[in-house]
Write a structure and sequence with these properties.
This protein is of the alpha+beta class and 295 residues long. The protein has two domains: 98 residues, Aminopeptidase (3-Layer(aba) Sandwich), CATH 3.40.630.30; 121 residues, 3-Layer(aba) Sandwich (Aminopeptidase). It has nine helices and 13 strands. The strands form two sheets. Strands 5, 6, 7, 8, 9, 10, 11, 12 and 13 form a nine-stranded mixed β-sheet that branches. It has a four-stranded antiparallel β-sheet with strand order 1-2-3-4. The mean pLDDT is 96.
């Protein structure tokens, strides 16, 4: 077996392998060559393929982004020596690691966790996909008396960027983000960004969007909420709950009949709060990390 970087000539085999290996995954939307190449370029991803006797038998992808260094798309032909091919791909992609750790994402409770454990990966946290039905407007929870809940104004993008980055403690947004969102979805504008203002300052935000790719493939009308971002000094004042409900009501007014979001399993306060607002856990993933010696 030989591992090498992918070329565009490998795309048909890569699409076949990905669609075959992930066809039963939660809310999986099949790849096309165009969609796959676009995702590789946009993220960007480094993709390796393993071939045997000139035929592509598997692939793996490496990403280095906001959440750290990650292994994606470990997809191998179903054959007697498939685990040998998987092991070879994992070992090769680990050579791309620049820091002291890398992670991958696996369904909670999946037998795949045992396989990754043999490669030295251990569970460290996870992610919930939560959904709620939208069938009637909800009353908006109370916030401090001086607070104003409204939508973002067209000239406030920099304020939004500053708020989100300070809330997270690292650079999550950059100027131009809103324009990127508009390019991806022509219906999107600042009206979809819900903010809390206190004493003339933006202190919390929730962004709503159409869950477009999901809707187009499954024929649904689901909205999506980005995670609430609140300045540290203004947390536990009800802003996240109030803006989440405001965004849910807005999505209902835009014709959505359900809404989805993601939240960390380590955010112990958010899950009970979201359940009170009508959300339920639809899916659970585990993060599996491997740590490397700095030497």
């Amino acid at each position: 077996m030989n591992v090498r970087p992918f070329t565009n000539e490998d795309l048909p085999d890569m699409v076949r392998l990905l669609n075959q290996c992930y066809e039963n995954s939660y809310e999986f939307i099949p790849f096309t060559e165009e969609k796959l190449l676009q995702e590789i370029k946009e993220r960007p991803l480094q993709v390796l393929v393993v071939e045997e006797s000139g035929a592509v038998k598997g692939l793996v992808a490496y990403a280095s982004g906001t959440w750290g260094e990650e292994i994606e798309w470990l997809a191998v032909e179903r054959q007697p020596n498939s685990e040998q091919a998987e092991t070879l791909l994992v070992r090769e992609v680990e050579q791309l690691v620049k820091g002291d750790k890398i992670f991958t994402v696996v369904d909670a409770g999946s037998p795949e966790i045992g396989k990754w454990a043999r490669w030295g990966y251990k569970p460290e946290g996870g992610l919930y996909h939560m959904t709620a039905v939208l069938n009637a407007p909800k009353p908006i929870p109370r916030v401090p008396e001086r607070a104003v809940l409204r939508t973002l104004r067209p000239d406030e993008e920099q304020k939004l960027v500053d708020l989100v980055n300070k809330a997270y403690g690292w650079e999550r947004l950059r100027p131009g983000t809103i324009q990127d969102w508009k390019k991806r979805d022509p219906a999107f504008n600042e009206e979809w960004v819900h903010v809390a203002e206190l004493d003339g300052k933006l202190v919390s935000v929730v962004v709503s969007r159409v869950d477009r790719e999901y809707n187009e493939y499954f024929g649904k009308r689901r909205g999506y909420l980005g995670p609430a971002a609140t300045l540290p000094e203004h947390r536990r004042k009800g802003f996240a709950s109030a803006l989440t409900v405001k965004a849910m009501n807005f999505l209902l007014s835009q014709g959505m009949d359900s809404v989805a979001l993601y939240t960390s399993e380590r955010n112990e306060a958010s899950v009970p709060l979201l359940k009170k607002l009508g959300f339920k856990i639809a899916h659970h993933w585990k993060f599996l990390y491997k740590h490397f010696s700095k030497a």
